[in-house]
Amino acid sequence: MLFLYLQIMKNNSIGIFDSGIGGLTIAHAIKEQMPNESIIYFGDTKHLPYGEKSEEAIQDFSKNISDFLIEQNCKAIVIACNSAASVAYKEVSEIAKNIPVFNVIEPVVQYIDNTCNTSTIGVIGTKATIQSNIYADKIKHKNKSQKVCSLATPLLAPMIEEGFINEEISKTVIHNYLNNPTLKNIECLILACTHYPLIQNEIKQFYNNKINVIDSAKIVAESIFNQLKKMDLLNNSNRTEYHFYVSNYTSSFEQSARFFFQEEIKLEEINLHP
């Protein structure tokens, strides 16, 4: 019965959500990796940033959005937000039932285990992600000898949302964070927020390209492709559609969204929360 259900669903959209528009870096990577797939994206711009919210609030937001994506008959749900993935993955999976749920954390942890022989790994992300300790726990579960140095960098996501990239203000903020003693002597750095790929070059410049800066977007997209292929859930038609929703529309968000997705897109406002 489950197999027949999934076969009916295989040409439906992949649902992706984030606290804002940072998850569009994941959506774009999925589009590049799987050009035949349709996408429904929801950015909860009314409640961003999730990294400053309580676990209970993030779980409630994530469940409401997941209900919406399920109502749109999405064949899979991607939690394209590290904060939500770190505290709400279980809740979303319970709601989704027969629909596969992917997050942005597991593929990166697996990538570290497969390819990084370094002893000291840095992680930067929102307060919620860092306080959950999820990266450190999962990495050390696979390799107890690896040291994980985690630092909350809460100004980065709103800075990027506002378009401060490759400017003096972004350089100053990035340098202040990366100079923190917590990150001293790291050999690779995980960008544990889907906004951060947009400042990846600035981060690499800080380290003079001497450490491995891990961009989760491509890693996550490749992992989702492999899993959907195993499940025989890849779209076998050439008819693709892209729909982008936010919970609070502004023209500045739409302009930023185009930058994140790297294509012309139109945002539609829909309020899921009371």
How is this fold's topology laid out?
Layout lengths: L1 H8 L4 E5 L5 H10 L5 E5 L11 H17 L4 E4 L2 H15 L4 E3 L2 H10 L4 E6 L1 H6 L1 H9 L4 E6 L3 H6 L6 H11 L9 E5 L7 H7 L5 E3 L1 H15 L11 E5 L4 H11 L5 E3 L5
Parallel strand pairs: 1-2, 1-3, 2-9, 3-4, 5-6, 5-7, 7-8, 9-10
Helix pairs in contact: 2-11, 3-4, 5-7, 5-11
How would you describe this structure to a colleague?
The chain is an alpha/beta fold and 274 residues long. The protein has 2 domains: 2-103 and 218-269, Rossmann fold, CATH 3.40.50.1860; 106-216, Rossmann fold (3-Layer(aba) Sandwich), CATH 3.40.50. The protein has 12 helices and 10 strands. A 6-stranded parallel β-sheet has the order 4-3-1-2-9-10, sandwiched between helices. Strands 6-5-7-8 form a 4-stranded parallel β-sheet, with helices on both faces. α3 crosses α4 (82-96), α5 runs parallel beside α7 and α5 (106-115) crosses α11 (216-230). The longest helix has 17 residues, at 55-71. It is globular. The relative contact order is 0.19.
Distance between the termini: 36 Å
Output the structural class. Answer: alpha/beta
Q: In percent terms, what proportion of residues is strand?
A: 15-25%
* CATH C-level label of the largest domain: Alpha Beta
CATH-assigned fold name of the largest domain: Rossmann fold
Give the tally of structural domains: 2
Cα Rg: 18 Å
Runs in which pLDDT lies below 50 for 5 or more consecutive residues are none
Largest sheet: 6 strands, parallel
Q: What CATH architecture of the largest domain would you give?
A: 3-Layer(aba) Sandwich
Number of helices: 12
- Helix proportion: 40-55%
The overall pLDDT average reads 91
The total count of strands amounts to 10
Q: Could you say which overall geometry the principal axes of the C-alpha atoms support? A: globular
Sketch the topology as an H/E string, one letter per element: HEHEHEHEHEHHEHHEHEHEHE
The main sheet orders its strands as 4-3-1-2-9-10
